[in-house]
From TrEMBL:
Keyword Membrane in annotation: yes
UniProt xrefs under Pfam families: 4HBT
Protein's name according to its UniProt entry: Acyl-coenzyme A thioesterase THEM4
PANTHER family named in the record: ACYL-COENZYME A THIOESTERASE THEM4 (PTHR12418:SF19)
Gene Ontology biological process terms in this record: fatty acid metabolic process
Amino acid sequence: MNVRTTSLTPPAGAIAPVRHPDAPAPGELLGAHYDQCFGCGEAQPHGLHLATRAGEGVSVTARFTVKAAHQGAPGLAHGGVLAAALDETMGALGWLLRVIAVTGRLETDFVRPVPVDTDLYLDAHVVAVRGRKIYSTATGRIGGPDGPVAVRADALFIEVKVDHFIANGRPEEINAALSDPDQVKVARAFEVNP
Ligand SMILES: CCCCCCCCCC(=O)SCCNC(=O)CCNC(=O)[C@H](O)C(C)(C)COP(=O)(O)OP(=O)(O)OC[C@H]1O[C@@H](n2cnc3c(N)ncnc32)[C@H](O)[C@@H]1OP(=O)(O)O
């Protein structure tokens, strides 16, 4: 029987993450991996427009302003939107490892309500890597980068190749992305990983 562990604690044999030599410098603004992405895409009108920067080691920081369109309860951010912001922030860690990885598992703690118009200050880092499995953690604070924690999450990302998207994405968007030189450049940047 194939038993899949759901634990987000790195298993024995997991190793410390290694920052890729060509990773963006600390402080550098990371562009969107896809301009229509709900998390980071600048051309996505319904998106979070997360602005993410490379940090030291294998870490990133990001900022996201909660808009009226992100409400769950009156005047408060929807939990799923906050989880998406944490997910996207951890997804951006791929820029530092130079791998493409998708979320396999995400566990979120909602610690404080987050009102509309709040800036959420996010940070994330890779805890450990084992084969294709990348164990990451992220925190979202309010009131400033050192403010109280409002949300946090642990996640397991699984490394994939560009073929994962080509095989599974709707052809309309896949064909548009493959004919966009900027998008192809992003995919190549992720895939050059000695
Ligand atoms: C261009 C840059 C793109 C960056 C995107 C960032 C965006 C933000 C992040 C996202 O939201 S990604 C979108 C949400 N995620 C998905 O759509 C993923 C959907 N799931 C899948 O496509 C597949 O299940 C997956 C690619 C994750 C794994 O399938 P595979 O056939 O490649 O792997 P496999 O099932 O053989 O599992 C490989 C290992 O990972 C483990 N694993 C896979 N999925 C898991 C899971 N869900 N929970 C726990 N463990 C999991 C699995 O047990 C195994 O462990 P071991 O090597 O120790 O045996």
